[in-house]
Write a structure and sequence with these properties.
By secondary structure, the protein is of the alpha+beta class. The chain contains 10 helices and 19 strands. It is globular and about 75 Å long.
């Protein structure tokens, strides 16, 4: 990008009101022939946030990211970076950079020159270039690696070089296209925390695309859960986990037990066997008739100490280190229960054991049973 364009974008950014979102999508639709990949999507991403687009393959998250970056153009609607509409603007003229899963480093260039590439393209030279590159390598904890080639680095180190190269020009927005997908599990978890700290340090808006719910919840301040080209629910990680609004969100972010029933009062649902379940205050607002109540497995206790109770029989038990998972058959279907192994000497339940499951009404959410059946 030309120096003049960079200066102009910096001036525009500085002149914007403080509440201006870094990215705004206004009723954006993207069609590929007869397939609607993104369907009338509107979204605002606040300045300086770590935002995740989360969903299964084919939900439209990557297409949305590519439209923000300029690699795809919307069929309808408008995309704004700050107050500037960028629909139709090529990627190199947008104040964004992208980090891909494949790293996309130049194998013949040194680490220093990989990071310096964008600076050289905009005309930076000499001591200013050297200082910026070294500062960025220090930020990603790769000081002293400048003379090496990409093949001499581990996967995690190469990913950090890709991050440094993308951030060295201080873009308005950094787009992360499943950047950790090629790493093994241990390294992926380390890089999740590293990227989260990096975003906090640089203060630039990060938009991260992933299908991994744990990764999104670990890294992002806010998450948009996408399904069939639309946003099912937008919120903080704890809001989405504790208060899912649809059965899809409840099932995509971890395991949920969904039990069918009928509204039986302001905060009560009657299950199929006649058992009355108390639910979180206000969660039945707007619901009538058939509903599904949801409980996360770790909120359920294999005892009778909480107000909501269901008798059942243990069918399966799986020891998974930090916890033990049970499948309990009840008259309302199988229920998954997760019990922490935090007390020595506790005798585990065995298949065939009869027990009563209980949980607090405040741990019970409500969704539409029609969505559950899809």
């Amino acid at each position: 990008m030309a120096v003049e364009e960079r200066i102009q974008q910096s001036l525009e950014r500085a002149a914007e009101p403080s509440g201006t979102p870094d990215v705004r999508l206004d009723r954006v639709t993207k069609k590929f022939d007869d397939v609607v990949a993104v369907d009338d999507l509107s979204l605002e991403i606040p300045r300086g946030s770590f935002f995740a687009l989360l969903g299964p393959s084919g939900c439209g998250k990557t297409t949305t990211l590519r439209m923000i970056g300029g690699f795809e153009e919307p069929t309808a609607g408008a995309i704004y970076l700050g107050e500037r509409e960028v629909s139709g603007t090529p990627p190199y003229k947008r104040d964004v950079n992208t980090v891909f899963q494949s790293y996309a480093l130049f194998p013949h260039l040194s680490i220093f020159e990989n990071v310096a590439f964008g600076l050289r393209r905009k005309g930076t030279r000499g001591g200013i270039l050297k200082g910026k590159v070294e500062e960025m390598l220090d930020l990603v904890q790769l000081s002293g690696y400048g003379k090496r080639k990409p093949r001499q680095l581990s996967g995690g180190q190469q990913q950090r070089v890709a991050l440094a190269r993308a951030l060295v020009n201080s873009p308005r927005v950094l787009l992360l296209d499943e950047p950790l997908g090629a790493l093994d599990l241990k390294l992926r978890k380390e890089m999740q925390l590293f990227i989260k700290r990096l975003q906090h340090d640089v203060g630039i808006t990060f938009i991260h695309v992933t299908h991994d719910q744990e990764e999104a919840m670990t890294m992002a301040d806010r998450i948009a859960v996408m399904n069939q080209g639309r946003i099912e629910q937008l919120g903080t990680p704890d809001e989405l986990y504790e208060l899912p609004q649809t059965a899809f969100v409840a099932g995509f972010l971890g395991i949920s037990n969904l039990l069918r029933g009928t509204v039986a009062g302001p905060d009560a649902v009657r299950l199929g066997d006649g058992t009355t379940i108390r639910v979180r205050t206000g969660s039945l607002a707007g619901h009538t008739g058939d509903v599904a109540v949801g409980i996360r497995p770790e909120k359920i206790r294999p005892d009778e100490q909480d107000p909501n109770a269901l008798p059942g029989v243990v069918r399966e038990r799986a020891y998974i280190g930090v916890s033990t998972q049970y499948i309990v058959e009840t008259r309302n279907g199988n229920v998954t229960v997760v019990v922490l192994n935090d007390r020595s000497g506790t005798v585990p339940h065995s298949p065939g054991d009869h027990l009563t499951l209980s949980w607090d009404p405040e741990a019970t959410f409500v969704v539409d049973p029609m969505e559950e059946a899809e």
